[in-house]
Amino acid sequence: MPQLDTLADLLGPAGCLRDEAEIAPYSVDWRGVYRGQPQAVLRPADTAQVSAAMRACAGLGLAIVPAGGRTSLCGGVVPQAQGPASVVLSLERMNRIRDVDPLDNSLVAEAGCIIESVQNAATNVGRLFPLHFGAQGSAMVGGALSTNAGGIRTIRYGNARELVLGLEVVLPDGRVLDDLRRVRKDNSGYALRHLFIGGEGTLGVITAASLRLFPPLAKRETALVAVRSPREALKLYARCQESGAELVAYELIQRNCIEITLRHGTNVREPMALTTPWYVLVEAGSTHPSIPVREALEAALMAGLEAGEAEDVVICESEAQRQNLWNIRETFPEASRIDAPGLPTDTCVPVSAVPEFLERSEALIAAHWPEGQMAALGHMGDGNIHLSMKAPQGMTHAEWLVRAPDFEERISELAVELGGSFSAEHGIGQSKRASMAALKSPVALELMRAIKATLDPAGRMNPGKVLPG
What we know:
This protein is of the alpha+beta class. The protein has 17 helices and 17 strands. The protein has four domains: 2-90, 2-Layer Sandwich (Uridine Diphospho-n-acetylenolpyruvylglucosamine Reductase, domain 2); 97-212, 2-Layer Sandwich (Uridine Diphospho-n-acetylenolpyruvylglucosamine Reductase, domain 3); 219-333, Alpha-Beta Plaits (2-Layer Sandwich), CATH 3.30.70.2190; 340-427, Alpha-Beta Plaits (2-Layer Sandwich), CATH 3.30.70.2740. Strands 10, 11, 12, 13, 14, 15, 16 and 17 form an eight-stranded antiparallel sheet that branches. Strand 16 (373-379) and strand 17 (384-390) form a beta hairpin. The radius of gyration is 23 Å and the shape is globular. It starts with a helix and ends in a 14-residue tail after the last helix.
């Protein structure tokens, strides 16, 4: 096609993939649920090439689907199956760390940098980049910011949004918004970066970010606690918060999730006798080795045992023990896919509402899909519980989805009813547009559409994502 020749001339052979085999990986999402064929995959090498590509696509009338590590769980980084003619714009070649300043506690990374690479760059100068989640070995900075990624350390450091000082963004018409300043205080008008964090590429393309760094943790103490129910886990959470041991993570895990991981996971072993329905993985830390983290955490957990909030406690005595616990937590999604199909959700409720949310979810499953099994684990410290409903053995994902087509919708409605959100950290993409229409405030949607119309009047940026049709 002549228009693709124009793009190839602009970006060079490595910057414009047109072969069907080369394009294929960009045509399907990570879960294999959403598929859409782009005209080409653009791979610019720098911001100037992104800007030129955006201008060219505007002139050619091509829609643009920005992509990073393509670990999206909501179909946000592939074209719509029946959408307009589009190209995928991959930031993978833009993977430079532009600057690291340990005194300023900041780092400037391009959008194609792998999250783990940013963590390593911070470590090399004695600092910590705290964003931590299962896909950090393949997820990229641009995608993590575009979906406002969360993870296990949100209770201490916040989501991706809280870790951004400034952004460089290429707008739909090719103009570059250079707002990479690293200052902590800036009252010079609207904080424009927040339009693009969580925007999933529907307003522009993030090409670089100034990120916050922190002193590294000199000490970490990790424990697995057996509890009877989420209500006891919530009481124990309050006790741990007040203990003086600063919490880094507080993960709630249903026993069947551990059992599934032990069956199908690799490099995991049973951490304790599994005698209760629920478990808590708790980690506390300190930036100075003299702080008595273990003593404070141990005292809180022992007090929890005496108060009946906990039934058993294992405090790690080695890094190998600690790593085993985190392997169990972080390899569950893959083990779960091997075990049986599941219908996943990504909701958040106020922390105090987590027990009620789980109790009502379990009752909902028992009433409508008694053959299903609830599997829940997640970040209890910030209210983000990843709850799924496992299919009976032998049933395919397609069959299970036909049996329970409104499961995710019902769980989302429950979360919103309890004062929460139907999307906690995975974004909206294609999969949650119906929930946006049904559960998002009409005023909020009106404002979002007005912003979209202002920045992307032709609707070429990631069409069919985030905003309902």
